[in-house]
Amino acid sequence: CGTGELAIRLAPRFQDVTAVDPDAEMLAAAQQKAREQQVSNIQWLNQSAEQFSVEPDSFELVTIGAAFHWMERRVMAPRIQCWLQPHQPLAIMGYTSIWSGNADWHPLVREVVKRWLGEKRRAGSGEYNDLAAPHELVLIDAGFKLEEIKHEHPQTWTLDNLLGNLYSTSFASPAVLGTKRADFEADLRATLLDFNPSGTYEEQMTFYALIAR
Questions:
Q1: CA dist., res. 22 & res. 20, Å (int)
Q2: Domains within the chain, CATH numbers bracketed
Q3: For a FRET experiment, which of 6, 152, 161, 178 has its CA 20 to 30 Å from that of 170?
């Protein structure tokens, strides 16, 4: 679920949508966005994917937006396959982040994040660990057949929308930053403005969708 981008965009195409996120603040932000857009057919659940349970063949589509790497993937992959109706897809989507991108200003953002939140990348209340196997292998082992779609997109960030994007992540959300948020924001603004006083920052983003059936 995160901030609800996928759930809200998909809602007009389905009778019912279920959105799951373990972060209550993220879920509240998503619900507010849905209210503003008058979307009312989404069930919001404040729990982890691993805690979620539903009858077999319940869904026409399961989506995961830049979050499969946080899950117990070898538990979730066969479970999701059971939840899906026959021949219906799981779609795992994501995009280049400051941890994987190579724009010249990305290392500066990484250093600010580490300065305020520690050397280990955060994952909500826990820490991110490098994946032992790629998503593709986990899904194939669970019996899925895969198709991958990629799209390159030039992106220009302002300081405000870059910060908004960081606050929507599990590693630098307001809940993770807590009382450090104002100092973190001031540090990031000063660091990036020192690097590029224009206040705009460019990168070539890669968006991907891994379709599994």
A1: 7
A2: 48-212 (3.40.50.150)
A3: 152
